[in-house]
Amino acid sequence: MTTHQATPVGDPTEPPEHRSDQHRRRAPKEDRLRKYRPDIQGLRAVAIMMVVAMHCGIIDIHGGVDVSFVLSGFLIGGQILAEIDKSGKVSLSKFWARRFRRLAPGMSVVILATAALAWIYASPLRFRQTMEDGLASSLSVMNWRLVETGTDYFANDGTQSPYQHFWSLGIEEQFYLAAPITLFVTVWLSRAIFRNRVLVGLFLTAVVAGSLYLSVTQTKSNQPLAYFGTQTRIWELTSGILLALSAPLLSRMNRGLAAVISWLGLATAIGTALLISAETPLPGYAVAGPVLGAAMIIAGGCAAPRFGAEWLLHNPVLNSVATVSYGWYLWHWPLLILWPDITGRELSYSDRFRVASLSLILAYAMYHMIEFRFRNNAQLVARPWKGIFAGGTAVAGTAGAAAIAMTVLPLNISGSAVAVDSSTVGYSGAASVKSSVLQKKLTAAAQAALPNSPDDRTHYGCIDDTDVEKFVMRDNCVIGDPAGKKSIVVIGDSHAWQWGDAFNEIGKKLDAKVVTMAKGGCSPEVYAIKNPELNREYSECDSWRESAFEQLKELKPNIVVVTSRVRQEATETGAEKTFQALEDSGADLIYMTDTPQPGKNVPDCLATHTDDISACNPGQDSAIEFPDFRTMEEKVATRHGAVIIDTLPAFCADGVCPTVISGQIVYFDSSHITAGYAKTLVPFIQPTVKKVLAG
After folding, report:
1. Reduced to 3 states, what is the DSSP secondary structure of residue 515?
2. Has residue 233 got a pLDDT over 70?
3. Of the candidates 374, 212, 222, which has an alpha carbon nearest to the alpha carbon of residue 295?
4. Degrees to nearest 5, angle at CA 538 with 494 and 285
5. Strand pairing category for 512-518 and 478-480
6. Are 262 and 305 in contact (CB under 8 A)?
7. What residues form DSSP beta bridges with 559?
8. Order of strands, sheet of 559-562, starting from the edge strand that comes earlier in the sequence
9. Backbone angles phi, psi at 358, to 5 degrees
10. Cα torsion 21, 22, 28, 33: sign
11. Amino acid 113: pLDDT
């Protein structure tokens, strides 16, 4: 979120030596261009309020960051163009010194304060990953880290980083690095070739068009890349530079028309922002509404109309909020993410207002105690190199602290533990589940294994990523006894893949080859699934499923085991199609019911509740998703001759689904079972598989 002070904008589009007498005669109208734009100050406040309201779940409104990008482009672009007009060059030292003085102090304070809060309150298991995010944020590359990790911006599963909001700051800071150099070179070339700024306008227009094209196309193919990538957002910033370039012309607009445009712009920005939802593919073309609205407000304001949107935007409240908007943006997100850990309860609606209010108070405090002092320090202003050195020192110190915390600090896990017979770790019958419901403390073995539990995932079997459209047989898909005379296929989504270690052992014991056919988020039943990562219908699942069924015909397995996460898109028609196709393959069918969904990241919860792990145990009613659909799938499978393995007794008892069973951690995240627990369930599953295989 940008929060720059208003800067001189609206310099003539041509250098002084190339202006004609006609330009001079128009000079009085060009005086409409103002060094201080109250409407922009008010719009900055509106943008940050949109962001905070959306993030905190107060109002479902999007586009605040997009409005801010346009403001950044206009203010910074105007500042650079004005300096080129005045001196014929750009002082990079002065420009970057201003950016350092403005951004570095607050950024460093928030990054370090967030690290301290995460160390004290958040899951110790996430601390090193959090510090990796803090390091990326301090170096202004958080957006690319989020691209690399494939982060879903709208995920609400407790895995969000408290530094995730630094993605937009990273894009802006990358823009600040490149903008003065690029603009200077482009202006110089345009003057040399055309003796005006035509080339500058053409270049900026091309950047806008190309980046917008990437935004639309990459949103369809790779939303994390499109959402966080600089290449798909730079058009919003460049639109602001185009406005700054056009400001002298816009200032000559009829003031009545300018007023209408500014009001229409405000309505467009707010109206389209309210139409965007978490279901809208973003950024794509959807953010064009807030961007266009912001551009119209800025364009209309260039003519300084008396009754434009500035009449509403210029007031003491919005001016005050705009002054601290940078700090508000920095503080609100980490407080929002860490609030449940700090308070020990889930966010309520009133808590969301508390987060918004507390972060605003912290923003005011940081502005007056830190930001204002650095920004207006006489020595730093008079000597740009000192400003760069001070800002660089703050950035380097913050990055260094994050790197040290990431590599040196031990995990902050403490709590008493109880001993347990290692021979009974994991499932050993219904009694082991029942007794685990009453367990309060982690066993010594479980506490020792806890740091590695997020990585306790199946070692056997294959799973295809979201973008894979066709199942291809490969060596790592074959487990168990590859030379076995009989064969078993396990087909489904990641809830089928999670059983890989168990079926590997079962295959070896039964002398059977096991083939895993799994694709993330892709049900083997023929359902029209909407993938949240892609934010559209999961067409890759449909094509992958068809190819997997074709492969089944060639394999001619003795048994097909069907298991997957129960989905809200489930239909009886879709289940019928799948089980009919599987029955036609000639294989015997086994349907394994879905495993429970804890609803929270289990290792994280256990790490913060070592002395009362019962706080991490979900109730059976909440952990069993879509019970009606679950029953429906089971009935359809039975109609087509499938043998049912009900997994529920291996996970739940007395209305509770314990997350630690006989000292074995059951889940490695909020949904999937650990490889360690899966292996203890071999005696639970194998008898049924053996019986069907023999039959």
Report:
1. strand
2. yes
3. 212
4. 130
5. antiparallel
6. yes
7. 488, 588
8. 478-480, 512-518, 486-492, 559-562, 588-592, 643-645
9. -65, -40
10. negative
11. 97
Query: Rounded to whole angstroms, how far apart are CA atoms 531 and 247?
Result: 43
Residue identified by tokens 């204002």 is 372
Structure tokens at 543: 């094509």
Amino acid at site 522: C
3-state secondary structure at position 370: helix
The owner of tokens 């020792």 is 448
- Residue in 343, 427, 478, 306 with CA at minimum distance from that of residue 678: 427
More confident residue, 25 or 336: 336
pLDDT band at 23 (very low <50, low <70, confident <90, very high): very low
User: How many residues make up the chain in this entry?
Assistant: 695
Extents of the domains making up the chain: 16-407, 449-596+624-652+678-694
DSSP per-residue letters across 209-249: HHHHHHHHHHHHH-HHHHHH-GGGTHHHHHHHHHHHHHHHH
Closest CA relative to residue 175, chosen from 17, 69, 262: 69
Q: Check if the beta carbon of residue 259 is closer than 8 Å to that of residue 308.
A: yes
Task: Match 């076995």 to its residue by tokens.
Answer: 484
pTM above 0.70, yes or no: yes
Cα-flanking dihedrals φ and ψ of residue 601, to 5°?
-70, 115
Task: Find where tokens 């809060």 sit.
Answer: 117
* Dist CA 301 CA 310 (whole Å): 7
- E-strand ranges in 431-543 read 478-480, 486-492, 512-518, 530-531, 536-537
> Six-digit token pair at 518?
């799994």
Which residues pair with residue 685 across a beta bridge?
none
Q: Find residue 536's DSSP bridge partners.
A: 531
Structure tokens at 361: 């108070």
Residue 149's pLDDT is 84
Instruction: Examine the pLDDT at 15 and tell me if it is beyond 50.
Output: no
524's tokens = 């083997």
Cα–Cα dist 366/110, whole Å: 9
Q: Could you give the CA distance from residue 354 to residue 613 in angstroms, rounded to a whole number?
A: 28
The fold adopted by the segment(s) 449-596+624-652+678-694 is: Rossmann fold (3.40.50)
